Amino acid sequence: MAFGWIDGQAEARRRAGLVRTLRPRPADSPLLDLASNDYLGLAHHPETAEGAARAARTWGGGATGSRLVTGTTELHTELERELADFCGTEAALVFSSGYAANLAAVTALGPHGSLVVSDAGNHASLIDGCRLARGTTQVVGHADPEAVRKALGTHGGAAIVVSDTVFSVDGDAAPLAALAAVCREHGAGLVVDDAHGLGVLGDGGRGAPHAAGLAGAGDVVVTATLSKSLGSQGGVVLGPARVIDHLVNAARTFIFDTGLAPAAAGAALAALRLLRREPQRAARAREVAAELHARLTAAGLEAVRPDAAVVSVRAPSPEQAVRWAADCRTAGLAVGCFRPPSVPDGISRLRLTARADLSGSEIERAVRVIGETRP
């Protein structure tokens, strides 16, 4: 029977407690949201929504084609200019998603004959980029510059080091300055995904590379998503102009994909301008994360100290993590639930995302619910 093997895999997932299901949410959910990646609370901000609506009224519902045909509007180039200026890079290139941006950067900068050194804790999009790149990939220990140095020492040709800036599972930050130093010892490029750093870290939310003094460096390429702090959708690659030009000519997820919808570009641009006017939102997101961590650990829970806006709480097992998240939901709190294979170390977690617009009473309520429902 066609696809008969699927039934066996479905049963294996069920036995392991790893079944995933879709849960459509209403437009006005009554749940306290600590599950989304809306770090700055901008997804529903009136200015973000109006930016999307205005762009849709002006440019229509879709980009109408790939970026190289009809999918580049004046709005796309305006967004790219302002993103590059904000993050301190020469140029920027917008994609239909952060996933597509990561695939583009890694595959186009890891050609045949090159070495791609990848952190063991990297996001799935970076991992898939490594799999699709024609270079040789070597996976090294998590956040370990010395392991990166050893890997680069085995290769005499072109090389890149690939890492998240803030890892999505535990919210810990990569040692960017040390990684950059190692790369420079060996003439390698550094490609970092700042999905969880943009809008949260750096001066006014300019990102982790900016905070590490790497903004605008000729050997550093930054990817990011527009769907987290900027409350929209899409992705971006930022870096030297010659690298961006290379992606325009060589990145398959740019050349063959339809351009980002104008509404998403308009929403991201509006959110970026709002962040420029209200840079305190970045610091507030970090403050909320720190307060969540302090309250959770004071309540006897095993929480990982956050370096940005992600707070991870360890669960005893995948099954108990799922039940814990479900019990939180029943009590009015939405939290993330990370289980294998999404977590590289096999440890299941509740994943909480701090938002700049959370009040003190909401933080207190969230901690109380998590503590009362713990397995």
Distance between the termini: 41 Å
Helix/strand/pairing category = alpha/beta
Measured as a percent range, the helix fraction is: 40-55%
Largest sheet: 7 strands, mixed
Give the beta-strand count: 12
User: What percent of residues are in strands?
Assistant: 15-25%
Task: Give the SSE order as H and E letters.
Answer: HEHHEHEHEHEHEHEEHHHHEEHEEH
Structure description:
This protein has helices at 5-16, 46-59, 74-87, 98-109, 124-132, 145-152, 176-186, 208-211, 241-250, 252-255, 262-277, 280-298, 318-330, 360-373, and strands spanning 32-34, 91-95, 115-119, 136-140, 159-164, 189-193, 220-225, 235-239, 303-304, 310-314, 333-338, 349-353. It is α/β, with parallel strands linked by helices and 375 residues long. The strands form 2 sheets. The protein has a 7-stranded mixed beta sheet, sandwiched between helices. It has a 5-stranded mixed beta sheet with strand order 1-11-12-10-9. It is globular and about 55 Å long.
Considering the chains and any ligands shown, give keywords for the structure.
375 residues; alpha/beta; seven-stranded mixed β-sheet; single chain; five-stranded mixed β-sheet; 43% helix; 12 strands
Protein topology:
Blueprint: H1 5-16, E1 32-34, H2 46-59, H3 74-87, E2 91-95, H4 98-109, E3 115-119, H5 124-132, E4 136-140, H6 145-152, E5 159-164, H7 176-186, E6 189-193, H8 208-211, E7 220-225, E8 235-239, H9 241-250, H10 252-255, H11 262-277, H12 280-298, E9 303-304, E10 310-314, H13 318-330, E11 333-338, E12 349-353, H14 360-373
Parallel strand pairs: 1-11, 3-4, 3-5, 5-6, 6-7
Antiparallel strand pairs: 2-8, 7-8, 9-10, 10-12, 11-12
